[in-house]
Specification:
It is built from eight helices and eleven strands. By secondary structure, the chain is α/β, with parallel strands linked by helices. The N and C termini lie far apart (about 35 Å). The longest helix has 22 residues, at about 180-200. A six-stranded parallel sheet has the order 3-2-1-4-5-6. The chain has a three-stranded antiparallel sheet with strand order 9-10-11. The structure holds 1,4-dihydronicotinamide adenine dinucleotide and oxaloacetate ion. The site of oxaloacetate ion (OAA) has 8 residues, from loops.
Length: about 290
């Protein structure tokens, strides 16, 4: 039996609960949201699917979940330039999540932006070991990178490391062909703006994040040991610490099994160092 808890069942949290139930990834759901009418509606809508899934709304049961997805808090609208700008607005939700997870022995997946900083904050403030604190965003960024590469007929395996935000690091050196700096910078700029194009058109990103999150939930709950880019609290990997950043990991039911240290080229290495500095400086502001 796999129990999935979701804190914040709005656009992303609601969709991932639905996908996890409909794709047979979870057998039980524990759903929580501070908006009672929305919570009630999400539960009812899920029940109307006729899927055979137990649903609890008792927040005390979150602690007993195998996997908890934290997707509570404010999303961006077009007036919010970067994900990092959501830090203070989402701090109350992050702190309340930390309170609910005292004694939690499962895997925590953080979605709420700024995701890397929130993942680091939750790891430090709950005492949950870093292997069990996974930040979600790298799979989504890598998929967006894939689209940008395919539009330019550039072959290879797409991976985006670094911050889930402005300081993201598309890894060009592992593609099948060399890519010159000017094209790299052009693609990077495109990636930095890609989610805002969706937000402007339909109010928020849903399909991409929810499906990749469901895949991540499957990796964890089904113990697949698959490789993915996820945000991990770093302890010297890539020469960085005091932050959480997107890095190549293997994911299993114990969380992050290993962090791979890829040989980055100079362009990527510098961008990764900038990402580490940026995220670490915000982490020190919120983790006391
Ligand atoms: N890491 C990633 O790749 C992605 C991250 N996000 C982020 O996920 C977060 C959620 O986005 P959406 O679902 O679109 O927003 P939303 O507004 O649809 O849902 C957020 C939900 O959180 C609830 N909430 C607020 N404070 C809460 C608290 N303290 N405890 C429990 N529930 C609380 C709200 O009532 C609301 O239902 C945002 O921060 C957004 O930026 C969104 C897409 C992708
Ligand atoms: O851009 C945003 O605010 C939402 C998000 O993190 C994404 O879709 O990657």
């Amino acid at each position: 039996m796999a129990r999935l808890a979701v804190i914040g069942v709005g656009r992303i949290g609601g969709e991932v609960a639905y996908l996890a139930a409909s794709l047979g990834i979870a057998d039980e759901l524990v759903l929580f949201d501070t908006a009672p009418d929305l919570l009630k509606a999400q539960v009812l809508d899920l029940k109307h699917t006729g899927l055979d899934i137990a649903i609890s709304t008792d927040k005390h049961e979150i602690r007993d979940a195998d996997l908890c997805i934290f997707s509570a808090g404010m999303p961006r609208d077009p007036s919010v330039k970067t994900r990092a700008d959501l830090l203070l607005a989402n701090l109350p939700a992050t702190r309340s999540c930390a309170g609910m997870l005292k004694g939690f022995e499962g895997i925590l997946v953080t979605v709420t932006n700024p995701m890397d900083i929130n993942n680091y904050t939750l790891c430090r403030s709950t005492g949950i070991p870093r292997e069990r604190c996974i930040g979600f965003g790298g799979q989504l960024d890598s998929s967006r990178f894939d689209l940008a590469l395919r539009q330019r007929n550039i072959p290879g395996q797409p991976s985006v490391m670094g911050e889930h935000g402005e300081h993201q690091v598309p890894v060009f050196s592992r593609l099948d062909v060399p890519v010159e700096t000017q094209t790299r910078e052009e693609i990077l700029r495109e990636l930095q703006g890609s989610s805002m194009d969706v937000i402007k058109g339909k109010g928020g990103t849903v399909f991409g994040p929810a499906l990749h999150l469901a895949r991540l939930a499957r990796m964890i709950l089904k113990d697949t040991g698959e490789a993915a880019i996820c945000s991990a609290v770093l302890d010297g990997e890539y020469g960085l610490e005091g932050c959480s950043l997107g890095v190549p990991v293997r994911v299993c039911k114990e969380g992050i099994r290993e962090i791979a240290e890829w040989d980055l080229d100079a362009w990527e290495f510098d961008k990764m160092a900038d990402a580490g500095q940026f995220v670490a400086s915000l982490c020190t502001q919120v983790v006391t």
